[in-house]
Amino acid sequence: MPGSKAPEEERRQQILAAAFQVAGTQGLAETTILQVAAAAGVSPGLIIFHFKSRRQLLLALLEELLATTTVLRAEVPVEASATPETKLLAALRQEIQRLTGEPLRIRLTFDYWMAGVRDAETRERLKAEFSRYRQAFRPLAEAVLQANPDRFPGVTADGLAGLSVSLIKGCAVQSMIDPEHFDVNEYFTAASGLLAGAARDGSTNAAS
Amino acid sequence: MPGSKAPEEERRQQILAAAFQVAGTQGLAETTILQVAAAAGVSPGLIIFHFKSRRQLLLALLEELLATTTVLRAEVPVEASATPETKLLAALRQEIQRLTGEPLRIRLTFDYWMAGVRDAETRERLKAEFSRYRQAFRPLAEAVLQANPDRFPGVTADGLAGLSVSLIKGCAVQSMIDPEHFDVNEYFTAASGLLAGAARDGSTNAAS
DNA sequence: CACCTTATTGACGAGCCGTTCAATACGGAG
DNA sequence: CTCCGTATTGAACGGCTCGTCAATAAGGTG
Fold this sequence. Notes:
Two copies of one chain form a homodimer. Chain A has about 210 residues and is an all-alpha fold.
């Protein structure tokens, strides 16, 4: 006996929310339609009705995941008088801290990343998203290079932006498996020392 | 009708080699005993006979993976007269280049990394291995800090070593999904500029 | 009220998968 | 040669999964 009806979009959201919970805790490969159905409180058949197949359910979940992930808001909270190095560092710190605060999101994102190695559609989607992400760092990197024309010989803005993104990804990977031992401040201090001796104590206001 | 017998260790190696191939190409979650058996040319039952369960087969494969992975050989090929910065950079470059040259190994390692999020035994094994890896960078990082006592205020050797490892991991993650577009030299140049203006053109000998 | 589109259910089949197990062949010890 | 432990096979079992489908309820429309 069927239950109460719900609008198309509302049901999809409900199912995707359940899928997010299941996939985030159990892992993407172990996420089954029956578990998602149980978590959402609906029948398994209904999930196939709204998303046609398990694969498309997971692709829809990837879209939801990327759409609801706030990446690098342009307004990094830092004084306008700060040096370019300080601004880039503030962005790095903000991103690293944000990542460690949403473990479910990190795990799920990397689950999709691994799936993208084999699945072309997932891979292209992720490549596009993280290309955007790297582009968001480009102006910050460019400002740093222009402020120090003599230092950084041969370094391109794309290179510095890519390096920043890789560092963030590496920290995310690290924090995934060892969240306790991962010390944001220690990493940030080391990065500060690398980027510039001038930007060392500009924004030591966040607690550990 | 059973086939020819083989010594215990030899059979295990044969099966593990097949498992490595299957897991490296199809992914860890999709690696089934039947596929490994087919790849090894033996019956499924034989795999359970030598490794008692699928789980233990995969744990044995993890051991094999870590045992046969050459990490950061102590003798980094660099002139003894080089600065500490150059030595650390040479180690970074060597590791990043090594990673991009063995895609199967990277994929498999990160597959286990994701599995380690849920499986405690896998997680502890990986934590131990990458702690060793970070320790291998510590003396290099310490030398850099001692050579520049005024720069890097408040930066610890552990922090700089951890940052180096995170950067390597980030590059590995990046190269996994976009191996073509990943430019080792661009990243390396950017890292050189960050670490020291002095070590900029010390080892630009590798082709792109 | 009558009707028709749509949402929802739960049972079902086909297909894998991991593991168990009886049967069987091999190879060395006596 | 005989015998016995061990390696090896392949079939069989139980369980889980995805996707299909007929049956059924819900809700808007006339």
